[in-house]
Amino acid sequence: MNLFQPILILGFAFFVVFAEATLTGPRDWLGAQIDLLPALMVYAALNADIITLSLLAVLGGLWFDSLSANPLGITILPLFLAGFPIYLRRELILRTAPFAQLVLGAAASAAVPTMVLLLMLNLGWQPMVGWDTLWQVAVVTAGGAAATPLLFGLFDWCGGALGYKEEPEMGFRPDREIRHGRLLK
Amino acid sequence: MFKQKNYLALGAVLFVAVLLLSLPTRATARLKLAVGSWFLPLFGLADAAQQLPAGLADSVLPRRELLHEIDNLRKENLQLREQQIQTAAIARENDQLRNELGWQHLSPWKVKLANVVLRDPANWWRTIQIDLGSRDGVTTNQPVLSAEGELVGRVSAVNFASAQVAIIGDPNCRISALVENPTRDMGVITAAGPPDAPSIQLNYLPNSASLKPGQDVITSGLGGIFPRGIPIGKIMDVQSLGYGQITVANIKLNANLGALEQVWVLFK
Questions:
Q1: Residue B1 has what pLDDT?
Q2: Residues B122, B229 share a domain
Q3: What is the mean pLDDT of residues A140-148?
Q4: Nearest CA in chain B to A138
């Protein structure tokens, strides 16, 4: 099993969460912090296995919630639900087309904060929700949509530059070998 | 088999999420602390990265500028010493008057400087994390002020080496405030507006409140968390809602909450 891809995805998620908590530029300029975890879920759903996808949802959600005032674990399910349907239908998706990546990134980036807010409101938490939330979700959606094709490019480059490919099966099969000679029965 | 594996994963994730959300508050706080501590090595890296440009800039500052800065600091130091002497005299006088009136003595507050290390990555909370924690004696509900002494918020959760501060406007930081006008009108600052907005609403004001733009708003001292007299902001405008039944004032905050780098934590 090639462990490079899961390690790369999970490591990137860790740094993404930390960067979202330390870099205030998007918040200062746009009024909302951009979240790259949904875009990462889209990448994992289209390119990784179900274990990596599940680990990304659980660990990404835990890391995000641990640095936030969110109740711990609230982000796990929305992240997974953003990636799981894409994973189930990934054979039908043009995963190499940037437009498809952009649309999926936008959908996931809009769905995750909406689901997190709905979950919190249903569980009795009182996050700050108002008309400004629409702007925040719009910024997060646009940011996630723009970031998804870039993430695909980055991961493809990392995979090509740093990873290794599993050795393909040999074309030679001893049972199909054609033998020549008179002694052959 | 393929489908079964997928739905097993869905079940496992659902189980983990439900388990975490149903844990008791204390267990969740400990787990949050444990998970949050994974980021501790990165705090140091971020600090070093922030200090590197400052260090480089310091090393190329001309001598004349440094001497000029030293001169300014000496003057400021003298002014502060004068102020300290005056303040000490006022405090003594205050103590004497309290003694004569038989009032309780006010215990002085101590302060500790903390660096702001993180901001809440979620857009629906107004919290920051500072680099003081339980090892420094920080406990929940301690008031937090900006470097200029204006109200920032209160400590809402404490880890070993860091603490979470709910800043003004967060749903977990309600403040009883007093308007410095002849009628000393009081209200409550509640959650409102987008995070890092420069203004906030003062609610639950009396209908008879005589509010004018420019009046100062300070903490009232009620509620037992914030001491009286910490500056919060100035009134921008006043609105009468619900056919005159509700009075709400918009306040421009003194502290720039979006650009906090260092804060003071108040200790009793």
A1: 47
A2: yes
A3: 95
A4: B123
